[in-house]
Amino acid sequence: MMRVDCRGVSTEGLADSEQIRVASDCYIKNGYAILDNILPEAKIAALHVEFQKLYRDYLDDVERDDSVEVGKSRFLMHIRLCDGFGDPMVYANPYVLALVRKVLGADAILEAFGAVVSLPGSAPQHVHADGPALFNSEISSLLPSHALTFALPLIEMNETHGSTAIWAGSQRWAKHKEDVPSEVPTIPVGSGMMWDFRTYHSGTPNRSNQARPMIYMTYARPWFRDPVNFWKEGQRRLMFGAGFVESLTDDTRPLFSQMLRIAPGSEAEKTG
Ligand SMILES: O=C(O)CCC(=O)C(=O)O
Measuring CA to CA, which residue among 192, 160, 154 is closest to residue 5? Predict the structure, then answer.
């Protein structure tokens, strides 16, 4: 699988860097991109500890009012943007953001922030795309990308803990092709993978005895809202911790233009 190593890559002028160009080409051609070494391992280890402390109750094999079972022993949940999770290196990582803005436009938003937790014994997930075809039409597969999922694992995604199997190029398919094999990447701690909302993928079983939390971020063009994954009253797409909005900068505030009443693409201006 094609991967882009960001270790030591300067965050100055990233948009025009060779790494982001290669990652963007891969994303457009294959419907996914893997970015290695975007965060220090110690930062992810600290997030893992924080997750286990704050979200202990989500490690039980039971669907809650504010979570959704998305496969046997696999749960989708929201995460509050605060403390370690409110760090812009996480939700607006410079490597991720440079790629997001290249493929979705400079006015891309963070539409949702949460985790998919795959518990020990989780089964192979159904093969799916993250959203339905735009306009419910085959034209959707010909269009530029409108939204993507970025997955940041808190423990390594691998054969033992489970990973996300991905069908390269499937963002251009009208339906899933059973006879095409998937690719199953290993994603080390400190690395992440993004896939187009149209790309077919499936979580693989967790064969270990520890939960595999994978932080996910949905980035989207400013007009798009995920129409299928949020249907329970208790679910939240975004939750801001105290002081989070005040901590936003001219660079990160436009990611929340849908929440803060900022005209998409305008100079960031906080009105809320
Ligand atoms: O658990 C995973 O690896 C993938 C989860 C996923 O794709 C989903 O729930 O939409």
Answer: 192
